[in-house]
Design a protein that fits this description.
Elements lengths: L1 E8 L3 H12 L7 E7 L2 H4 L6 E3 L8 H14 L2 E7 L3 E3 L3 H11 L3 E4 L2 E3 L31 E2 L11 E5 H7 L12 H11 L3 E5 L4 E3 L12 H15 L5 H9 L3 E3 L5 E3 L2
Parallel strand pairs: 1-2, 1-4, 2-3, 6-10, 7-11
Antiparallel strand pairs: 4-9, 5-11, 6-9, 8-10, 12-13
Keywords: Glycosyltransferase, Transferase
Family: Belongs to the glycosyltransferase 2 family.
Pathway: Cell wall biogenesis; cell wall polysaccharide biosynthesis
């Protein structure tokens, strides 16, 4: 089956260029790299992307952009869809491992371990040295290379790095586009997959490496998105996600929760 990597990007042009280098250096490069620019006229006009979307009044349409990228990949004849965050470098065997797993078990949606890298040296990251930096994020499963874990927790699904068959993608219907901006759509998609009778698994050989960039903890610049998207998730699934962030926002005086358990921004 043909394999397409789907990446959505808003800025992060250097990170995208490094990601492209990592894909070109893979043991088995993808047949297609579908890049969807979001509110990024420089990238949209560069010839390096397949499509673009504008921002909405509420923020960046990340879910819609991933769905658009998938439609383009399917139109190119891809049978394996690999979704890779723009900040992620592909480990040498990531594409090959995902393709093998999807072909052997097309009803499972596979995720791979992701290592968060320290800032690069002045010369940039050495792609050949990435395996020596391997230290997957402790909040997610991290099977060893060659190991597969089945029946994964949908609440731990994330869109940094995952892959599925074309049939599984069509069966899922893609990401819920009610979500705009940061937060919630990953966990929602994990729930949708399980509801649709698909399996979730973790694939040790599909290792990715997240390039460094500064972050806020908690992500206060996304407070409006997180409160709004948490309400959408609650409406769809009956409970509130991202409670750790919401409680941190509450501690900072940015949000409050009412007697019905609904969160609201202040100010």
């Amino acid at each position: 089956m043909r394999t397409a990597v789907v990446t959505v990007a808003h800025g992060r042009h250097d990170h995208l260029a490094c990601q492209r280098e990592s894909l070109a250096a893979a043991t088995v490069p993808p047949d297609h790299h579908v890049v969807v620019a979001i509110d990024d006229p420089v990238l949209a006009g560069s010839g390096r992307c397949s499509a673009s979307l504008p921002a909405t009044p509420l923020g960046l349409p990340l879910a819609a952009a991933r769905n658009l990228g998938a439609r383009i990949a399917l139109g190119l004849g891809a049978g394996v869809l690999v979704f890779l965050d723009v900040d992620c470098l592909a480990g040498p065997g990531l594409v090959e491992a995902y393709a093998d797993a999807v072909e052997s078990d097309p009803s499972t949606v596979w995720s791979g371990p992701v290592t968060y890298l320290d800032p690069p040296p002045g010369t940039g990251y050495d792609l050949a040295a990435l395996p020596g930096l391997d230290s997957p994020h402790p909040a997610r499963p991290a099977p060893a290379p060659g190991e597969r874990l089945h029946d994964a927790d949908p609440d731990l699904f994330w869109s940094l790095s995952f892959a599925c068959s074309a049939a599984a993608w069509r069966r899922s219907g893609g990401f819920c586009e009610d979500y705009v901006g940061y937060g919630g759509e990953d966990t929602d998609f994990g729930r949708v997959l399980v509801e649709d009778g698909l399996e979730l698994g973790w694939l040790g050989a599909a290792r990715a490496y997240h390039q460094f960039h500064p972050v806020s903890r908690p992500p206060v610049e996304h407070v409006d998105d997180i409160v709004r998207n948490a309400a959408i998730f609650r409406r769809r699934w009956g409970h509130t996600p991202m409670l750790g962030w919401l409680r941190e926002f509450e501690r900072l005086g940015l949000v409050k929760v009412d007697e019905d358990g609904r969160w609201h921004t202040l100010g």
